[in-house]
Amino acid sequence: SVARPLLGLRRADTESICVLAGLSPLADPMNRDHSFRRVWVRERVLPLLEEGTGRDVRALLARQARVLREESDFLDELAMEVLAEAGDPPLARVLATAPTVLARRAVRGWLGPPPPSLDEVEGVLDVARGHRRAVQLVGGVRVARSRGRLLVSGGLRFRDR
Questions:
Q1: I want to staple 96 with a disulfide (CB 3.0 to 4.6 A). Which of 3, 70, 129, 149 is the partner?
Q2: CB atoms within 10 A of CB 136
Q3: How many CB atoms lie within 10 A of CB 43?
Q4: Most confident of 10-19, 69-78, 152-161
Q5: CB-side exposure of 118: number of CA atoms within 13 Å?
Q6: What is the CA radius of gyration of the chain?
Q7: What is the pTM of this model?
Q8: What is the per-residue DSSP string for 88-155?
Q9: Count of beta carbons in the 10 Å neighbourhood of residue 130
Q10: Does pLDDT of 161 surpass 50?
């Protein structure tokens, strides 16, 4: 686990802490380059939102991000339980009957990196549900249903399966 005790602070606060500690903060020029969307949002969009709403939008977004991360981690844990129940290769019926949000995450976990697109995940679930016989994924990977299980073939990512 990585500890980031200053992550929730504003830049001015962290710079003040550095000065008090006798450190010279590094000014990364990328943090001023508006060709990066995060910089453009931070310097142009967020001030407009704060002006328009009369609230500290940054604190609200940071709080919401923490909540969503916790919820996402929880859903990932539940999805891994679904995947464990499905086995390897996974039983199609387990994925087909799982709540969709968990089934999607389970399929992503099963396929592994690089993360499949939503369309690819939905295609795999269509195979699990019996709506399709097979689906072709990026990189030459094919997922098919055979004897109630999902099987992968082709592609470099599944060479060891």
A1: 129
A2: 14
A3: 12
A4: 69-78
A5: 2
A6: 22
A7: 0.75
A8: TTTBHHHHHHS-HHHHHHHHHHHH-SSPPPHHHHHHHHHHHTTS-SEEEETTTEEEEEETTEEEEESS
A9: 11
A10: no
Tens digits of residue pLDDT in 131-149: 999 999 998 999 999 999 9
Helix (H, G, I), strand (E, B) or coil at 3: coil
Q: From CA 62, how far away is CA 72, in angstroms rounded?
A: 15
The H or E element that residue 77 is part of is helix 57-86
Q: Which two three-digit tokens encode residue 61?
A: 């977004």
Q: 7-64 pLDDT, tens per residue?
A: 778 888 988 998 899 998 888 899 889 999 999 999 999 999 999 999 999 889 989 9
Find tokens 């939503």 and name the residue. 118
